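As described in the Methods, two query proteins were run sequentially through the folding procedure within a single session, without resetting any intermediate state between them. The first query and its resulting structure tokens are shown here.
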Amino acid sequence: MEQVSHASNVVFVLLGAIMVLAMHAGFAFLEVGTVRKKNQVNALVKILTDFCVSAIAYFFIGYTIAYGANFFASAEVLSQKSGYEMVKFFFLLTFAAAIPAIISGGIAERAKFHPQSVATLMLVGFVYPFFEGIAWNDNFGLQPWLEATFGAKFHDFAGSVVVHAMGGWIALPAVLLLGARRGRYTREGHVAAHPPSNIPFLALGAWILTVGWFGFNVMSAQTLDKVSGLVALNSLMAMVGGTLAAMVLGKNDPGFIHNGPLAGLVAVCAGSDLMHPVGALLTGLIAGGLFVRLFTITQNRWKIDDVLGVWPLHGLCGVWGGLAAGIFGSQALGGMGGVSLAAQLIGTVAAVVVALAGGTIVYGTLKTLVGIRLDAEEEFEGADLTIHKITATPDRETHW
């Protein structure tokens, strides 16, 4: 029976890993549909390449930093418990690789290719697992201190803060160091619109992410005996709330509507195992509204050219999710309890500090040493032709 239990857990976590791996196709198509046509190939290539670089970085460095474990034992040892530790690594890798996938949308259309691969190696190898280990493995004593001081640890069931806020806040200094796309803002203060190039691809990306998210959240239980239908229903309600809020505040804009479910799902990750479904719905509604308002402000008022709005979507909605777990997870509001708003605030702020520092150091160093931005002519031609020597839809056919 013990062997059956191990095998069941392996299948459970493996299905989650596969669903989150599929989400990376969602990241890719969300970016493909948003960027201009001359940068669509680059979006696809970046997501796949960054995932593979992330796998190397996390396997050899990051997982050890986060959990103190490595895979340098024999295959016989590694395959114990039906190889559960292997699929657990695979599952957590798909989370870690979401960091560069998130950043990719913010720096799209003007970032150099290979320096970004180096950034991915550093971020997934060192920056992300540093805070991952603090939050999910009690490294450096922050979690025990929070529990002793406030009666509860910082709670992030599926990564509102550990994954999404980290990714969004790492992306912010990268976007600022790169600067806006050429022609995006004029000296007179006008904003040149760059509308999405392909709404169907954008929608496809959003749908793939939305479906995969139920593996992202539900399978975060990591063992079959801890699975909870509450997580699934709360994810659904937050997704619905985010979509409807984005529809209303975004005035039926398809870009906002298809990012709305993502905003709700980002925010509910942390407390999806604690909240009442009504609390999850409110969490999603607030997240959808937050994304629409802050995306508009950052683009039009603050002149921050965050192409896919990854800072408001992942960074701010992730922060809101960390706080929402402390609010709607309380028993007074119908939640499961066992959570402290003060601990949530401190843990969330710690993540933001680590992300900002890590993003600034990594991208600032690369900018100084090798440069991180395409030159004016390369950006005008587009990343597809400049880097990959082909467009998404070549006009000229070859006749052999």
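Immediately afterward, the second query was submitted; its sequence and tokens are:
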Amino acid sequence: MNTELVEHYTNETSENTRLTRSPHGRLEYQRTQELLRRMLMPPPARILDVGGGAGAHAQWLAADGHDVHLVDPVPAHVDAAAALPGVTVELGDARQLSIPDQSVDVVLLLGPLYHLTEEADRAQALAEARRVLRPGGLVVAAAISRYLSLMETGTNGRLTTEMTSAVRNVIATGHYDGHVGFMPTHFHTAAELKAEVQAAGLRDVQVYGIEGPSWPALDVAGQGEFDRLVDAALQCARIAEQDPLMINASAHFLAIAHG
């Protein structure tokens, strides 16, 4: 397991509040729920939530009636998720799952791909997801857009001359160095994410922009304006979710594919 990753989530940040502490996090949460509910089969599906953190999505999926098993490499996350009704948990790594072959209906990879900075590791995580998936099941994989830091800093006024080389580099290469916070990770384009999922042998791959292009404006407006602005932001995200000219303006993507 990645020691740096475990230390980061144990000591430096709280995954419990990531989807509530900023307006764009709240938008991401609502849109992820919306997209998953649109794509998932009726409950009770057997859902494996790989890298599911403290269970932000596992909690509502279980409440919807699904059978959710969460795997995460961070002990504090596993401990927190273990307290959620209807959720079973396990300490583990996306690249080497203990789950039997063809035993689940849905595999969620909503965190691992951006933390796996080497392409071979991402390929291994996707291969494991395919291995444990029943024929015809769904894999749902999230990624961070290469344009996140450009959109964020260009909107909030933090895009300085000194920062431009780092922003240009992540757009060109996907190698994110932490220049707007968080830890070094891999940022995708929508096309790159689709190609990686297809290379794992998964079928019917569709990529959706989660937040759409208005998410940084929500952050600048602040939490107090979220309720007034969110409906328009949601409509914007829906219109642009698969628009090839706009999809990369989302902060995150969801790739949805069949086994």
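The chain has a mean pLDDT of 94. We note this only descriptively and draw no conclusion about the first query from it.
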